[in-house]
Write a structure and sequence with these properties.
Length: 407
């Protein structure tokens, strides 16, 4: 018994040393080896560098999502609140439900297909028209970012805002939301971006009060229980934050995955119905929103670890979506995977409002259009694809080339 106890203590010491030594830079570069060890050695672990407990097992993340009364979205001194103000992402029901009901109608499946799909298709074709003759592009900068930003500007009701401004606002606010290193310049950029969004909303509200157009801002203005003007502004900030990054990062990750898995690419091109499988596997595999912050409301035991009331926790979606107990060979991209119960869009009351928008604009518009219009699409062999992030994760570039058409 003594020997076994000694070995157990040694194992605990090693696991503790590992957890204490986790650095944010390592998570940003490649979090998956760290997540794998956490799954096995410390599935609920206080990580000093992040200032919170990291919850990495699929079943534990699901439990937390399904019990918002224990894992509250109202985190004190939340970085999201600091950047964007009080918003539905950081509210619990019933206030969360009221705000969401006002904003959600334009993002429902039928509205996406009937009202927004033609705009998404036009955006895709116009962007491809701008670079198709060159025979090469960075699909991240030249297509995915502007595509997601332009679509979102229309959906929100600020169609005249340039894509470049939307992208900059989104990135600057998201950098603020994940500024756990507390870098002053990052806060400055985030606050400036939030202010610019407020000005754009003010302009839209003046127009939409008398001329409703079915957009998100219009929907909130004319809702049965309309939010205040400040609540509209704060929620538009949140939507710009996640509504560009997530579709952009899914879009580029899916193209990259297919270009590096030719057999799966051939299967999809032979059967367009498979694009939906590409989408679900890509969001599982890359988890563009890799972590949700929460705060415990009472003492809780999870995976044998006691988490005190008031603790900050991280529901690490990027780890849960690669939990080998749920997804065999989780690091492998596989559109034939049977298990599709990924957590990329969250769960419980905070299930992502933009899910149907992303599924449609990426899986039914962007990918089929790119592969149809760029014959012989392949990675540029002279440039390396780069990835980064753990709170938000995605490709930083996607250099490609294709056969130019002779006209």
């Amino acid at each position: 018994m003594t020997t076994h106890a000694h070995e157990h203590d040694q194992a605990n010491d090693l696991a503790n040393d590992f957890v204490q030594g986790i650095r944010l830079e390592d998570l940003w570069d490649d979090p998956y080896p760290i997540y794998r060890r956490l799954h096995h050695e410390a599935p609920v672990a206080w990580v000093p560098a992040a200032g919170r407990y990291l919850i990495t097992r699929h079943e534990d993340v699901v439990f937390a999502e399904q019990h918002p009364e224990l894992f509250s979205s109202r985190e004190k001194e939340s970085l999201v609140l600091k950047v964007m103000g009080a918003n539905m992402l950081r509210e619990d029901d019933p206030e969360h439900r009221r705000l969401r009901a006002a904003a959600e109608p334009p993002a429902r499946p039928r509205r996406v297909r009937n009202d927004w799909s033609p705009i998404f298709q036009r955006t895709a074709d116009e962007l491809i028209d701008s670079f198709v003759a060159k025979g090469e592009a960075d699909l991240c900068a030249d297509f995915a970012g502007p595509f997601a930003a332009t679509n979102l500007a229309h959906l929100l009701g600020i169609p005249r805002v340039p894509a470049a401004d939307m992208i900059r606002w989104s990135q600057d606010m998201m950098d603020g939301n994940s500024n756990y290193a507390d870098i002053p310049e990052v806060w400055d950029r985030a606050v400036a971006a939030a202010g610019a969004v407020e000005e754009a909303v003010d302009e839209a509200v003046r127009r939409l009060r008398d001329e409703p157009d079915g957009s998100v801002i219009s929907s909130m203005l004319h809702a049965e229980e309309p939010p205040t003007l400040q609540q509209i502004k704060n929620n538009v900030k949140v939507i710009i934050g996640g509504g560009i990054n997530e579709p952009r990062d899914v879009l580029t990750a899916g193209v990259w995955a297919l270009l590096t898995h030719p057999g799966q690419r051939a299967a999809v091109e032979a059967d367009p119905a498979r694009w939906r499988h590409v989408f679900e596997e890509t969001v599982r595999w890359i988890s563009p929103i890799g972590m949700y912050p929460r705060q415990t409301t009472e003492d809780i035991e999870l995976s044998g670890v006691r988490i005190p009331a008031g603790s900050r926790v991280a529901l690490v979606i990027g780890a849960a979506n690669r939990d080998e107990d749920v997804f065999p060979e989780p690091d492998r991209f596989d559109i034939d995977r049977e298990q599709r119960n990924h957590l990329a869009f969250g769960g419980g009351p905070h299930f992502c409002m933009g899910t149907w928008v992303a599924r449609h604009e990426v899986g039914e518009i962007a990918w089929p259009t790119l592969f149809r219009r760029l014959p012989g699409l392949e990675l540029d062999p002279d440039r390396r694809v780069e990835l980064g992030g753990w709170v938000f994760r995605g490709l930083l570039n996607l250099p490609v080339r294709w056969r130019r058409q002779n006209h």
